[in-house]
Amino acid sequence: MSSKRLAYLEKVTAEGSKDPFAWYGLANEYSSLGRPDDALRTFERLREMDPTYVPQYLICGQMLANLKRGDEARVWLQQGVEAAKKAGNTHALSEIANVLASLD
């Protein structure tokens, strides 16, 4: 990803955007740049702002699982199962459950 994209997303979120996709994009950008702590902080901020935004749980859970941080991943994924159920998002529920099952 480009530094322009990162700069844009950092600017938008710093200006107080409540758009969950901007925060999600920024977290993904940090993750892809090898900045997992920044990504996690951004996912946590997004979760505070919009706990109903289902994709964050899958992607953050996968990132943490890949970092061998299974306990943290499990928490995110379990929260994602609940959020997906509430949203009626069966596709996301299935994906999240598969990642969660792979941790066991």
* Strand content range: under 5%
| Helical residues, percent | over 70%
How would you characterize the largest beta sheet? none
Helix and strand pattern = HHHHHH
* Number of distinct helices: 6
Task: Tell me what you see in this structure.
The chain has helices at residues 3-14, 20-32, 36-49, 55-66, 70-87, 90-103. The chain is mainly α and 104 residues long. The radius of gyration is 13 Å and the shape is globular.
Reconstruct the topology from this structure:
Elements lengths: L2 H12 L5 H13 L3 H14 L5 H12 L3 H18 L2 H14 L1
Helix pairs in contact: 1-2, 2-3, 3-4, 4-5, 4-6, 5-6
Give a quick rundown of the structure.
This protein has about 100 residues and is mainly alpha-helical. It has 6 helices and no strands. Helix 2 runs antiparallel to helix 3 (about 35-50), helix 3 (about 35-50) runs antiparallel to helix 4 (about 55-65) and helix 4 (about 55-65) runs parallel beside helix 6.
